[in-house]
Design a protein that fits this description.
Blueprint (H helix, E strand, L loop, with lengths): L5 H10 L4 E2 L4 H8 L4 E15 L9 H10 L2 H9 L5 E2 L27 H10 L6 E7 L3 H16 L3 E7 L1 H7 L8 E6 L22 H11 L4 H18 L2 E14 L2 E2 L2 E2 L3 E2 L4 E2 L2
Parallel strand pairs: 4-5, 4-6
Antiparallel strand pairs: 1-7, 2-6, 2-7, 3-7, 8-11, 9-10
Helix pairs in contact: 3-5, 4-6, 8-9
Length: 282
C-alpha cells in the first residue's frame, strides 16, 4: 500500500493493520520503539543536498555557491530534517559514511561546515549581489527536505540575501526543477550510489545542470581503470573537483527508520527492502 501520509503509516503499524512501515517520522520513532510488539530498523537512507541552478541566475558563478557553503550551518539543517544525531552524520565526502572504506578523500574537510558568515557576505559582494530575490523550491511531501529548506532560507537571510521559499507537491517539484527560469536552489535528498561517477547531479541534463569539461576528463580517466581498487586513487581527483566546482552542497548523510511488527522475521534492508525468505507469524 502506498500511504503518503506519515501519521497513517504510524497508526497502521501500531494497530497491526500494517506489518511493515517504511520511513516512519523521526519524531515518532521512540514512541514506536516503546511498543513491545514493534521493532525499529535504522539504516543508511541517503544524503541531504542543496542543489544549485547553474544554468541561469546568481549561482552560475561559483563564488555565489561558495557564499552559501560558507554561510550554512550543516548541523542545524540536519537537525531540522532528522531531529536527532542518531539519524544524521556530518560528512564532507561525496560518498556516504558507510562507504568511506572504499571511497574516501581528505579534499573538502576544511571547506565543509565553515560557519563563516563574513566570508559569505564578502563573496556575495564580489559577485555583485544586491538584494535580488533568490527562490528556493521544496516540498512538504518529504518532511526532511522541507524542514531543511526552511533552515537554509533562514541562514541565507542572515547574510543579507532576499530568499523566497516556494512549496510544491512532489510531482510539481520534479516538474518545476526542470525549468531553469523557475528557481535558484532546491533542497533534495539523494540515495546512495555504488560508485561516485553515477551521481545524478554530475550529469549535464540533470536539473541543476552541471557542465564541466574538467569533470568529463576526470570521469573518463576514472572509468578506464581496470578495477575498483585501481579507481580509488582517481576518486581523490573527483572529490577535489567537487569541492572546487560545487555542483551541489552535500549537507550530510541521513538514516531512515522503518518499523516491523514482531511477528515479522528475517526482514533485511540493502539499498531497499528485501522481502526474500521473510516470514510473518501472525
Amino acid at each position: 500500500h502506498f500511504v503518503t501520509d506519515s501519521s497513517t503509516r504510524v497508526a497502521g503499524i501500531q494497530s497491526g493493520e500494517y506489518d511493515v512501515a517504511h520511513a516512519v517520522p523521526f519524531d515518532t520513532a521512540d514512541q514506536l520503539e516503546s511498543q513491545d510488539d514493534i521493532i525499529n530498523h535504522v539504516y543508511p537512507g541517503g544524503f541531504l543536498s542543496i542543489v544549485f541552478n547553474k544554468k541561469a541566475g546568481l549561482f552560475t558563478d561559483v563564488r555565489a555557491r561558495e557564499a552559501v557553503l560558507a554561510a550554512v550551518n550543516m548541523e542545524d539543517v540536519l537537525k531540522a530534517g532528522y531531529t536527532d544525531d542518531r539519524y544524521y552524520i556530518l560528512n564532507h565526502n561525496m560518498m556516504m559514511s558507510h562507504q568511506t572504506e572504499q571511497w574516501n578523500s581528505p579534499h573538502g574537510e576544511e571547506k565543509y561546515n565553515q560557519l563563516d558568515p563574513e566570508k559569505a557576505k564578502q563573496l556575495l559582494e564580489e559577485v555583485g549581489y544586491s538584494g535580488e530575490q533568490i527562490t528556493i523550491i521544496t516540498t512538504r511531501d518529504y518532511d526532511d527536505q522541507y524542514n531543511g529548506a526552511v533552515v537554509v532560507q533562514e541562514q541565507l537571510e542572515r547574510i543579507g540575501m532576499n530568499v523566497e521559499l516556494e512549496v510544491y507537491d512532489w510531482a510539481s517539484l520534479l516538474e518545476k526543477n526542470q525549468d531553469e527560469t523557475a528557481y535558484d536552489i532546491y533542497v533534495m535528498g539523494f540515495v546512495a550510489v555504488p560508485e561516485p561517477s553515477t551521481f545524478f547531479y554530475i550529469r549535464e541534463n540533470y536539473p541543476g545542470w552541471t557542465n564541466s569539461p574538467e569533470l568529463k576528463e576526470i570521469v573518463a580517466e576514472y572509468r578506464s581503470q581496470p578495477s575498483l581498487d585501481d579507481a580509488k586513487d582517481y576518486f581523490d581527483h573527483l572529490q577535489k573537483w567537487y569541492w572546487e566546482y560545487l555542483p551541489i552542497i552535500k549537507v550530510g548523510d541521513f538514516n531512515r527508520v522503518s518499523s516491523t511488527r514482531t511477528t515479522v522475521s528475517d526482514f533485511l534492508y540493502q539499498d531497499g527492502f528485501v522481502f526474500w525468505n521473510i516470514a510473518n507469524e501472525k
